[in-house]
Amino acid sequence: MSNAETNVAGTALLDDPHAEHGGNGHDPNLAHHFDTPEQQYTSAKLGMWIFLGTELLMFGGLFCAYSVYRHNHPEVFVYAHKFLDKWLGAVNTVVLITSSLTMAWAVRASQMNKSRLLTVLLILTIIGGYGFLGIKSIEYHQKYEHGLWFGGSNIFSESYIEKVGPKEFEKSVEHLEHTTMEPSHAGGEAHAGEARGGDAHSEVIGQANGEAHGEAVAGHEAVAGAAATSQPTLKTAAGFSDPNAGLPDEAKIKPSFESPAGLAPEVAAADPHHHHLSFEELALRDKKNLATFFNIYFFMTGLHGVHVVVGMSLIYWVLLRSVGPRGRLYVWPLGLASVGVFLLYLIIITHYMMLAVWGGAVLLFSLLWLVRNLTIANSVEEGHGEFSRDYFTPVDLVGLYWHLVDLIWIFLFPLLYLIH
Amino acid sequence: MLRSVLAEVYDQTFWLPKGASTVAPSTDWLFNFVLWICIFFFLLIAVLTVYFCVKYRHREGVKQESTAGHSTALELTWTIIPTVIVLVIFYYGFRQFMNLSVDPPNSYEITATGMMWNWQFTYPNGYTSPELHVPAGVPVRVILDSKDVIHSLFVPAFRVKKDVVPGRYNRLWFQAEKVPVTDPKDIADPDKFDVYDLYCAAYCGTNHSTMKSIACVHTPESFKAWLTIASNPYLGHTLIEVGELFYKTRSCATCHSNEKDKIITGPSWRDMFGSQIPLADGTTVLADEAYVRESIYVPGAKIHRNFPNVMPSQLGMISDTDVNAIIAYMKSISVNFKGDLSQFQVKGTAPEKGAPTTMPLTPSISPPATSPATKALDKKSD
Amino acid sequence: MSADAGTIPYKEPGMPRPQHVVDLHDNYLNHSKGIKSWLLTLDHKRIGIMYMVGILSAFFLGGLFAILLRTMLWSPVVMVPGNEQIASSSYRLYNHFFTLHGAVMVFMFIIPAIPAILGNFILPLQLGAKDVAFPRLNLLSLYLYATGALFFSFILLSGVLHAAFNITLPGGFGLDTGWTFYTPYSSSKAQGNVVAATLGAFVLGFSSILTGVNFIASIHTLRPKGMTWFRMPLFLWALYATSIIQILATPVLAITLLLLAAERSIGIGIFDPAMGGDPVLFQHFFWFYSHPAVYIMILPAMGVISEVIVAFSRKHVFGYNFIALSSIAIALLGFLVWGHHMFVSGQSPLANVIFSLLTFSVAIPSAVKVFNWLATLYKGDIRLKTPMLYALGFMMLFTIGGLTGLFLGALAVDVHLTNTYFIVAHFHYVMMGSMLFAFLAGMYYWWPKMFGKMYNETVGVIASIIVFVGFNTAFFPQFIAGSLGMPRRYASYPIQFVGYHRASTIGAYTMGLGLVLVGLNWAHALLRGKKAPSNPWGSNTLEWRTPSPPPHDNFPDAPVANDPYDLHGWEYDKATENWVYNEHAAGATAGSH
Predict the structure, then answer these.
(1) What is the tens place of the pLDDT at every residue in B332-358?
(2) CA of C487 vs chain A CAs: smallest distance (Å)
């Protein structure tokens, strides 16, 4: 058998990476089972795209479940989404898109051999990720404070209602509406974080909610009674509102018949003048389902949050590889320190003091590590990062992943925050 | 031979149980149609395989022959023929399925409730039985409702099955057929009916395999007679027995015990009748028929001392006749009743066979909080 | 060696045998030593072997549960007043057995068996490559498989602890939901550890996804020169189609199972009717994965069968293009038929009709494959060696399994048959009979390559006949019991079904015996087997052009791909019991071809 024929099947295929021969064998970044860097890059890129496809399909299933539930209970979503802070959500969208931009720029930088720029941009992207998580923690904590946490810690959940009884439950909901619901007519001032309690604020909400507020007062007693006995007799006052009744006072004039069960909320939801759906307008069965909205919210954003953390870790891994051996001496402890700082930041939000111990310990350890590394820095060669215009696959792939994380949020934001 | 033995012993053919509904013959026809197609193709493939393996087995010195690597004509043939066959099967399956899906509007309606792990069949008059009784020759619609998890109602003889899904109302229909009645006396006899197995076909937990019942096919006359007797507890029972039944089934027992010194929420019924009841204002009242009746209809009128006034009025829910039965039961467990109990121990007589139900029938379980109609409206999808 | 490969014209079909001396003592098994060299290996062959250990253990466990539950079904439980407690605990035990049998078999044996063991070992060899595209990912998916197995071991442990010592671990004991995890039973009523099971299946799903990603990338980028898409071995086509399903369907299962775990632990409400959810939605999600998963099980099996039938009838496969493309067709059509699992769930009649029609459309490519294999046998030089016997068994069982699918696709008949033993028999014929027979065929076929040892042919033949007879005794009576109305998943049964159940149980034991014989044969081959030649069957795919077992880097010499099913030129050499390539003979017959 001739050498030529051996080559037909691809020389590098059979060559040990350490074997001395011409061609690509010297490239330390070329795995032994690939012929050429191009082949390796194509494989990696193909694999990554397929993997991203599976990620999209996974979230696709979740979106599908969301759609079915929303289709079955549109009023639940119309009502409950108002508890979400769309301004924080919007800011988070901007933060994430910005970090996507820095990431895309980082890929470009690596392709152009600008390793210092690459490092800076990767750090900026990680900071963007922390920014997203930080804002998300504020939101989560608000939900927790307001009793809109998942599972049994949600005031709409059956276990909570059973625990406190229907009267107390009604009061909590009323309080919650007055303190947290963001009146969209009032513009951006009514920040959910500031909106806790306060009679003056309730007034603003009252005005903003307009006609719905009037009904709320009218229907409230009936609802309290209805919830107590679990009878579907709730729609006496607020169940059906005349779509032609434009003025707040007129809304109190109700047709004398009771609307068929399950119909009224749709009418209300479908009516563009009436999108300030109030709690009283929801059918009884929907009230019990409100907790599900928050469960879905936490599940979707939580799973997305996990992806953000994974993405940040991957970017950090790329960052480590993008600097030389000496740079790595700083990047390792600084990365750890950022975790400590984030934990300490969480104290500001949650006032949970145990975090101080953990955050402090992590921070202290990483600072000591940094100091130790600074002392030996001179003995380590400066070197340069692994990435160049010839080899930037990891930056590229991690960038793709980060864009996917961004993309999913861009779907989540309108689906959860901007329902009407 | 085997066929006839099976038919003899278990009332079935080799493949299918005996059909007892109007849809069974066409389903069976389709089953057999597919069966013969399968047998034909299986034999074709099996015989050819074995034949090739024998004919072309390896022999020294004989080499394989090169045959065409592919043949468009051949491949098209064995693509098109199966396609046509499956389309035919699909068509018959589809047509028959539409028959199964569209229930006649005038169907007799029975609600089947599945729960872990038994069935309850509720008839239009509100009577509930653990077995499914149906009249033959009448389309029957079964509304399916589950109290907990998914069950599935399956009557092999009727060739029908449908999942019983919580949160939605599924339904199925069939028209049962009865084995011809030979003796004219049996036509209206409520105890003469054909029995078929009824299963839960969707796994529903530990005792899934015990969630079995029977489907009883009556002649229409027999069914009417059966329902009349079954849903009228006075027939064939003494007044005391009926009273005890009401005590258990009308929620009395949830608050009133029938044992001495056992207090649940309300006073015990043991030895209550004929005793002097202490009232909240310090006076006493004799627990006679009038007091019991008043306490059932207007519970707050005379409250037993040391007991809360929590009992809801039973006005319009328990008839006067039924109150009499309850009183008879209270008498039977009270030492303070000095009268003659034997007068309440006569069994009620059955009415003339086939007579229409005249009694106001009452369910033996508490009715669901919402009626099927409102629940169906509640569930918008589907 | 100059690297200027591109300028040399590709020459075919003259395909040289490696002539130069090969170090016969170096192979992937002894290339490096020590437990660490196995656990951290990136070699696809070692990963395949480790998968084999894990998957065969799972198969043993699943089989054990099968034997246990068939034993319990020997007689119906007689419920008399007073023994309700005993009867109930017997039912509970049965429910745990059938659930674990199903879950372990489906998630840990049937789905991964052929792709993870044979696929991992053979795919790079058939590609003439040194490894799969992402060796690290490959190792990761092995460890994900092991993690998933840990979850199921935990469930098993919790079940045993509960049964033996009445200790209940957090989350529940055992698993009693059926492998389908239907809500709301699984989310609210089940006693089993549903969360652990769903997380386990979730992790196993990820293992499956990563394998799929790996295979697709490998097939796309690692094919050697000369191997165009339509010169790929059919096993690779089958794995390619399988991988498509794995990456498209498994994510949906993953999210469904996560939702179910959340439903069970915090009550998210999407599937729970009490919270406004829809339990039928879970079935849609579940079957959107699990129906295509049936094709994950059967497509690689079909690939194996195509290889084996060609090798043992010494003929070019008939209708290569059709077999190759029908795999892809089945993979894609398989996504459109999930609703046929729910004909009686109360979905709209229109949906039922559409799903029924689509279901029949999948039947066609499957049927035609069988005809193609038959045509391959025609005028061949058929050698009834063990792999071939299993392949022929596959053809019989798959025909029965496929044909009985016609009953279930026909709507009205399905209403009567669904959720009865007819279904049980049908899917055992397809998933178990066909897939297991193909797996055994593949294992015997590639055994010499994997371990460099020959198995005992006589024992292999006897065992294959016992398994075939046992299988049919076990499952054919279930068709009859089912059409007579015996519902599935019944811990006890009406007395008229006792005959069918006993036949089934006898069959199960027979089959178990046959499989034990298979295991002994393999163990014997490993320890005492004769040294295997490089190409004991005279096949022309690339994996047979390297020594058995293959060296660490797979090929001592560059393999050159030509038509994988052109067997001309391979001649049997009695002295070495090996097939050798005779270029002269190849040329002579190639001309007349």
Answers:
(1) 998 888 888 888 887 776 444 433 333
(2) 31
